[in-house]
DNA sequence: TCGTAGATCTAGCGATGCTAGGATCCGGGC
DNA sequence: GCCCGGATCCTAGCATCGCTAGATCTACGA
């Protein structure tokens, strides 16, 4: 099937429709409601058509996760570029938490559900590398003498941990702001 | 059924057998292999018997999670008591990571799988409160002027984040040791 | 010894992810 | 214009899941 043909376009559209439907259903009703039959109904095709686009359910989660990572990257970048240089770590940390709160199902696809994505491995998708690059921009300046990449991993996981524990109700919500500010202060080592 | 009777004891034994079977299967084959039919086979009863002990599958995950939390608590306490005072934060942080690595399925039950446990809420199980108490013992001394409880939440979530991202292959494993050491250094604010 | 209450099992319901095999449609050669 | 072959799509079904209803069987007290 030559690229750019009508069939090719329709096929790509259908793939997008599946991903979008999965996102929408997951955000509104939770991931357990995202079933192959439900997706088929959303795109107005029969169930096996789904398997013409994705090998299995996990591949759909992975596709949504990739989309989420891309959006998270632009969200972080926007926050970084809008902030005064000395406020970049705060702004990006907050943007991370904001994103997770605004798109919990997307966040689940990225970090909680099994999605089969190879993050650290040799053939990690570019989207993942880009996202980490954005974190480097934000937090590498705080590394001081330490190894930058390691420092950024450390900072990211600290922010991530606070995000996931907070979102799952394991931390006191009323001090969320002060807790995140405290983390950034500690990371800045002022 | 009066407590202490033979029937009561047998019932309690069976409950324990279910929890143990769930743990064992989850550790050796992953949580998806833990099905009600499989558990029934393990305890040599028919499947509906499971529902005489647990309302649903999630309640079994919760029971395993509680068990895991208790074990994590003693693991952290042991590490704390064995360490020199100035090394307590390092020792406890490492113990946390060690525990997750040694019992990944247990850790999943506690933090990744839906278990319905109310962590932060008013009627959180005592086991959860005890576990957090252990974290307070370890990290509150680092709070300096800051609010202690908030500081401990911050430190815990940072360690937790590094643990979960590391275990799911999202951080470089070869620098795991230096990364955790770096976090503790930052938390100590030396 | 017998009747009843509780314990346990068999069987089944409505779902799930996923697949096989038949129908249908569409495009290119005569 | 027709016909044929391949791609595309659907119906139907398999095995398995969590969970439950109803029958059966066991054990204990009157």
UniProtKB/TrEMBL annotation, chains A, B:
Single GO MF annotation: DNA-binding transcription factor activity
Stretches assigned to coiled coil: none
Keyword terms: DNA-binding, Transcription, Transcription regulation
InterPro entries per UniProt: Homeodomain-like_sf, HTH-type_TetR-like_transc_reg, HTH_TetR, MT1864/Rv1816-like_C, Tet_transcr_reg_TetR-rel_C_sf
Domain HTH tetR-type: 12-72
Record's keyword annotation contains Cytoplasm: no
Highest taxon, organism lineage: Bacteria
Known DNA-binding region: 35-54
Ranges annotated as spanning the membrane: none
UniProt-recorded name of the protein: TetR family transcriptional regulator
Organism: Actinorhabdospora filicis
């Amino acid at each position: 099937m030559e690229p750019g043909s009508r069939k090719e376009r329709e096929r790509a559209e259908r793939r997008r429709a599946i991903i979008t439907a999965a996102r929408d259903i997951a955000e509104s009703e939770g991931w357990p409601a995202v079933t192959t039959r439900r997706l088929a109904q959303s795109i107005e095709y029969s169930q096996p058509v789904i398997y013409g686009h994705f090998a299995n359910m996990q591949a759909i989660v992975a596709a949504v996760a990739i989309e989420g990572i891309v959006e998270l990257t632009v969200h972080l970048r926007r926050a970084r570029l809008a902030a005064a240089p000395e406020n970049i770590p705060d702004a990006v940390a907050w943007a991370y938490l904001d994103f997770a709160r605004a798109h919990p199902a997307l966040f689940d696809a990225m970090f909680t559900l099994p999605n089969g994505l190879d993050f650290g491995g040799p053939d990690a998708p570019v989207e993942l590398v880009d996202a980490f690059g954005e974190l480097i921009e934000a937090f590498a300046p705080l590394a001081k003498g330490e190894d930058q990449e390691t420092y950024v991993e450390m900072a990211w996981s600290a922010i991530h941990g606070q995000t996931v524990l907070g979102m799952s109700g394991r931390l006191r919500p009323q001090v969320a702001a002060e807790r995140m500010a405290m983390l950034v202060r500690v990371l800045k080592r002022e």
